Amino acid sequence: xxxxxxxxxxxxxxxxxxxxxxxxxxxxxxxxxxxxxxxxxxxxxxxxxxxxxxxxxxxxxxxxxxxxxxxxxxxxxxxxxxxxxxxxxxxxxxxxxxxxxxxxxxxxxxxxxxxxxxxxxxxxxxxxxxxxxxxxxxxxxxxxxxxxxxxxxxxxxxxxxxxxxxxxxxxxxxxxxxxxxxxxxxxxxxxxxxxxxxxxxxxxxxxxxxxxxxxxxxxxxxxxxxxxxxxxxxxxxxxxxxxxxxxxxxxxxxxxxxxxxxxxxxxxxxxxxxxxxxxxxxxxxxxxxxxxxxxxxxxxxxxxxxxxxxxxxxxxxxxxxxxxxxxxxxxxxxxxxxxxxxxxxxxxxxxxxxxxxxxxxxxxxxxxxxxxxxxxxxxxxxxxxxxxxxxxxxxxxxxxxxxxxxxxxxxxxxxxxxxxxxxxxxxxxxxxxxxxxxxxxxxxxxxxxxxxxxxxxxxxxxxxxxxx
Length: 468
Hints:
Elements: H1 4-9, H2 11-20, H3 26-66, H4 70-106, E1 126-131, H5 143-149, E2 153-154, H6 155-162, E3 168-169, H7 171-191, E4 195-196, E5 202-203, H8 205-211, E6 222-224, H9 227-246, H10 256-261, E7 264-266, H11 271-275, E8 282-284, E9 292-301, E10 320-330, H12 335-352, E11 357-361, E12 373-381, E13 386-395, H13 399-404, E14 407-409, E15 416-418, E16 420-428, H14 429-439, E17 447-448, E18 462-463
Parallel strand pairs: 4-9, 8-14
Antiparallel strand pairs: 1-11, 2-3, 5-7, 6-7, 9-10, 10-16, 11-12, 12-13, 13-16, 14-15, 17-18
Helix pairs in contact: 2-3, 3-4, 5-14, 7-14
């Protein structure tokens, strides 16, 4: 979300900033924002003026009545009624203009940081570094072929029960996937100091709004709602309400109706759950003297509505996958350094697994909705002879905090400030499994287990053989 005062004070910066991020007709958008802001403030002023006049007229009625001036009292009463209408009209206008302004601002992406390169898409991203030597010799089978040949990866069975973009992992491969997740979670907690959190996987729409998935990207989310149960609950409450009324007990109906009617969304990333832990809070400066660091290993669910035809085979782009997520909450002055640190924590996983990768600074046109600066880590996949994204680490500045109303107060200060939020993958488990399978494949079609994962595999050194 954006600060209307900042737009009001420097509209040209927002026109330039949104134009560089691909917002069509950014000048017209800013002009509309400013016009709504003028209308909103005018409605507020009209309402305040009418309220002041009504209060004065109401007070004058008493004085006129005291003087037995009934004509003046009647005139003032008529004036009060007129002013009540003006107050109501101004209130309606304020509500309508305020809602329109909030809806417009809610759909506009974050502005890029000053050091983010210009560009339209992934072709304009800037490579920062490469680590490791890509495997360009030896077997380079696709991970899907490897897994199916071993009898440990079954897409057909998954499709029968769930449709496309699902997979069934079996035996040693399922254990390897579990080992990868546990290894990464332990690394982020034990070595990098993130606090492990086990958060909800189902959240309400306001949580999705806070991190920027809503309202713009609803088609990419899985949504639930038990409307049959909701209607049953409404019927029960209506019966109970009639009984309470007959007994003279007009206590309002329970929250169960709202609980049933409210839709829930399956999280597309634990970023949603972790970041919303500070929603509508005011933290003390002591609580963020050091960045608040949280991590979670969770299933994630994505509809992939905009990915038709892309990565339709294999584990690269699934509706359901596991991911270790990192989230940091910090003071504004700490977020740039924390962004570099977080990205380093993700890189450390790839290095520990000895997987070649590159670090890329995303251009303005390729960044996500809420980000002001993003690094992608791309791992080498021999079967594709290219690097593919395995982690995205973003500094969102105060963009999400404004949407969540997440603040902190400095010691000795009365004024609150918005927190800064950061998020990153540490890493995506399924894609890490893909990278391990392809980079550690052997001539006989088996998969060597990286040394770092062997303690999590009970000492197993090779996937695809009966025993080691």
